[in-house]
Amino acid sequence: MSLTALQILSSDKNPIPISHTQYLSLLNEGQIESATVTGKEFSGKLFQSDSLLNNMTNKFEYHNSFITTFPYEISNSDVKLWNDNNITITANEPSFGFFDYLIQFSPWILIIFLSIYINSFLPIFLFLIPKFFATLYIVWGLTQHMGLKEDTKDYRHSTRSVRLNSIFSFIYWKMEHHIEHHMFPTVPSYNLSKLHALIKNQMPPAKKGLWGAYKEILPAIFIQAKNPNYKISLSVPK
User: Fold this and answer.
1) pLDDT tens digits for 201-224?
2) Do 144 and 160 touch, CB atoms closer than 8 A?
3) Are 176 and 161 in contact (CB under 8 A)?
4) What is the mean predicted confidence (pLDDT) over 81-109?
5) SS3 147
6) For the chain, which end, N or C, has fewer CB atoms within 10 Å of the first or last residue's CB respectively?
7) What was the pLDDT predicted at 9?
8) 65, 51, 53: which is closest to 13 by C-alpha?
9) From CA 70, how far away is CA 57, in angstroms rounded?
């Protein structure tokens, strides 16, 4: 098919946006000469201009370059296809501008402004501060069951309660009273301390702080590495 002067000029325009399906057709037909890959974005150049369906205008246009976005993360199988089709690939790292970072941190900024507007630190305490304690949540959470029995209905043998300071206890929603939480799951977290005071004589002693719990957990981990059937034996009131 011969090209008109207008069609030849159109091939010099910016890459035309096409669908991923159309990209696959070009790939299978061996029409792609080279491409630049940035994240999920694939900007390709054809050996010669062809009639491509513009994904934005839904009209066919003659172009020798196109751009498409993968609906999934590009994998090794895609790279293998490009190599099999002798496509020259240039990989670029995605660049992040000021507005990208602004969008990323906009929820934090909005929460801070909301706190200022309503003259209260509550939004910050509820939505921002807990994010900084994600690692501590893991450290606290590991104390709940690690090293204890798993095949028992008596939660006093499968669960561990720990005594935390008032700040950590508040952040952890009183979940350090974990035996009590399992035995009476409908009790709200803010009442777990009261529940603990009522039934503590029927419970194994709560471990004193994180060190008190991990002093029991760490040796058990090494023993279980050699003997998977080993479980920590607790002193439970009858």
Assistant:
1) 999 999 999 999 999 999 999 999
2) yes
3) yes
4) 81
5) coil
6) C
7) 43
8) 65
9) 19
